Amino acid sequence: MSVSQAIIHRLTRESGDKSYSLSDKPLEVSDNAASLLSEIKPLFARRASKRYGCFTDEGAGVFKGLVVNWLGDTLNLVSFSQKAIEYLAIALEEQDVESDGYWLFAVDEQEAGRILWLAQLRQFDGLAINGDNRPQPSEYLDFSKMGFCASLNLDQVNQPGEKKYLTVSFGFGDRPMQGLMLDFVCFTDTVNTTEDTERFMAIVDDYSRDMPEENAKRYRKEVAEYCMEQGKNGETVNYRELSGEIESQAPTGLDRYIEERAPEIKESFIPDRNSLKRYIRYSGRSRDVSISFSNESLGKNITFNPNNNTLTLSELPAALVKQLKGE
């Protein structure tokens, strides 16, 4: 990983007051910018809520304009990021949204191009052991509480026809910020991951229909698990590669089926992990009941009656049986 430029600013907006602490110079190499980004990138890749798109064509958009000026050398990273934080503070004030955190702007030089990372980091109070082996108050970055994060391919921003250079995601508890941040970074969706995933899995359903029922369930589950793992790693799913991984006996079977029955389908797609879960486990909950079980169990030790919407379970977990018997 090569971080060529990075800077951090502080922005707080609480109870009608807003304040920010703007840095006046970029981070140095010794400031661990690369280590910081190495913590952020895998967390971002594993998020299931990512959305893929580009800058909206409607209106100029402040952030979009700042990026264009920065790329055109009208602004440097310091000025670009400072102005972005100032405009973000105004947006928070106008929409009466509270927020507190540090905002990292980092340029990551990759083979795929220069990537601008924008991430909201949160710091928490804790304890650390000092040189005298005594606990003392300390502050630390809790990456598990990372807020909004965006990845922008700078080399594709001005390329005609490019519609997938901006990826955004939100952390837990970020709901009040979602609409505001999507508007702020001028984001528009161009990739429907749910639609692409469900279309692909529908084809897998059709393909596995001639298999014995047990084999079909296992095959669909293996395909879904493969897609899920690709999504967790931030990778796309290529159905030709998937076919070679899953179908050890007939590694081109799914390939041929898709070419014959659905040649229009994308060879690679971004998997939507929420759409894949039902191929791995059935789950649901109400106020009083929570149920989750492997899809392979249905028809074996678990049966469903659609006429009266009832499940019949056998081979109950030993711990549950003990609880029911009061042992």
From TrEMBL:
Record's keyword terms, sorted: Cytoplasm
Localisation: Cytoplasm, Nucleoid
Pfam families: NA37
Main location: cytoplasm
Keyword Acetylation: no
Family statement drawn from the similarity comment of this UniProt entry: Belongs to the YejK family.
Protein name per the record: Nucleoid-associated protein
Lineage of producing organism: Bacteria, Pseudomonadati, Pseudomonadota, Gammaproteobacteria, Oceanospirillales
